[in-house]
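Project outcomes to date are best conveyed with an example. Our students and postdoctoral researchers have been running inverse folding experiments weekly, and each run begins with a structure described purely in tokens. The record below, which covers 105 residues, was selected by the lab manager from last quarter's runs and is presented without edits.
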């Protein structure tokens, strides 16, 4: 049953970490322009694969783009700073997961 809200439909797909999105779908899911998303690709914030006639993004990019946008909006961080912050946040998440696994032993 279509919801009439394409952004909500896309978000439901993103719950699957193996989802692949077009540039348009990523822009809709993140409420950003193509230029903003492409700038993040150029800065290395997110990865894109060229496929056929356009770019394709993994579902993980939605979370990364939203985080970058929040960092830029709330803290005034530029794309390069946001990319570094994302790397550090990812590393923290990995370390926390490792600690949880070790604590369960």
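After processing, the design step wrote out the following sequence:
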């Amino acid at each position: 049953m279509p919801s009439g809200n394409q952004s909500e439909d896309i978000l439901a797909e993103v719950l699957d970490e193996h989802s692949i999105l077009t540039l348009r779908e990523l822009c809709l899911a993140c409420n950003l322009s193509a230029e903003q998303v492409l700038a993040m690709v150029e800065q290395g914030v997110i990865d894109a694969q060229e496929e056929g006639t356009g770019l394709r993004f993994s579902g993980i990019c939605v979370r990364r783009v939203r985080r970058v946008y929040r960092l830029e909006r709330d803290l005034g961080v530029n794309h390069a700073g946001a990319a570094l912050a994302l790397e550090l946040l990812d590393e923290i998440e990995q370390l926390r997961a490792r600690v949880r696994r070790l604590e369960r032993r």
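The chain has one domain: 6-104. The chain has five helices and three strands. The training component of this project remains on track.
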